């Protein structure tokens, strides 16, 4: 038992830090409303109303109603278990020949995720719709994961995976991802002339039925019309071009705004191609990519600091207490820097602009930068994994899951929570790249040490930020 704990201590550590984080989570947002819906109706009546007037997520909604009516401790226990299993199986899939070092790096990467986004509509409501769907989506693939690794799943795994499949397919993003990746696995099996896995076919059928159910649900149409009127009236006049702009630019905008996960992924991907390539043009391409992502990350940080005084003014008495502090001179200093290059500032500000701007140099610039990130990642993944297109499909699947949100009128109120599947794809890909570099001894030991300590420091700092935001904005006090 002690040896087992030592071997898998990275996951024990992850569960521990998630337990600490969950200890300060409070009852908030839509959770309060869900807890009251059965005060004058039955659950069947409520779900029927939701189906015809609001949403096709009746399985998720039903469980949300149940959990919001219980002591929050029940949800906290379930959330830690379910999310941790999702994290464990992502790392297990990458870390086939188990390496404790790779597991630690994987845990660090997952701790870089801004988990406070799972409280944006209420902890219970948001996690069931997003982080649970991520975890159950991964669990639904377990029989295929076992098969791909030359192992055989037992009956219990099949039952758990099937239940996870049903739940995850009730959410449109995960239903589409499950369908897409199962179709790819079926094609892969046919090309390799492997026997067709019946569970693979069943998953395709379930996901396809779920998508038809979602697309034909009358409540989704009613909700769409209401949200256009309430949240984004201009959306009614948008065509494919405007919606595609929203999907593309806001996707990379959210990644750039978070600053950590995409920057680490992009730099490590660039370095991995740089190490292996002897092509001079390709090496220049990778150097440029590293400089670009560092520049964008640093410059957007300067823009954030330059408007810090405006944000602090909204705090009233707190601002009065610190307005004479030397630190308050920093925003003015950075304003001078960002205003010195108006094209760069204007272009990068559009990543967080809530709307579709007119056609000008700035809007053209932000589209070019976004398309460059999309295409450069795709090219470098093909170079980093020359005999394996699956990493590219993981990235494109994650990107598509966020891009499609551009066709929804609540793209801005939804915030970053709808980006979770892209974040998880980037985390998995980063770990895959690092694992490949370690297996091929492409990184000297001293640089491995630097990489590992860097991951640890960034993960610890981000965890403290997540804890602080969760405590202040969404805590129990």
Structural summary, described in words:
Helix content is 74%, strand content 0%. With 477 residues, it is mainly alpha-helical. Helix 2 runs parallel beside helix 7 (100-111), helix 7 (100-111) runs parallel beside helix 25 (445-474) and helix 9 (131-140) packs parallel to helix 12 (172-191). The longest helix has 30 residues, at 445-474. The radius of gyration is 23 Å and the shape is globular.
Short summary:
It is built from 25 helices and no strands. The chain is mainly alpha-helical and 477 residues long. Helix 16 packs antiparallel against helix 17.
Assign a percent range to the helix content.
Answer: over 70%
Oligomer: single chain
Give the overall silhouette.
Answer: globular
Overall strand count: 0
Biggest beta sheet attributes: none
SSE arrangement, N to C:
HHHHHHHHHHHHHHHHHHHHHHHHH
Span of the ends, CA to CA: 38 Å
Return the average pLDDT rounded to an integer. 92
Protein structure class: mainly alpha
How many alpha or pi helices? 25
Overall radius of gyration = 23 Å
- Beta-strand percentage range: under 5%
Which blocks of ≥5 consecutive residues have pLDDT under 50?
Answer: none
Topology:
Blueprint: H1 2-7, H2 9-22, H3 30-34, H4 43-53, H5 58-68, H6 72-94, H7 100-111, H8 123-129, H9 131-140, H10 142-148, H11 155-168, H12 172-191, H13 198-216, H14 218-231, H15 240-258, H16 261-276, H17 280-306, H18 308-313, H19 317-322, H20 329-339, H21 342-349, H22 361-384, H23 390-403, H24 420-439, H25 445-474
Keywords for this entry:
single chain; about 475 residues; mainly alpha; 25 helices
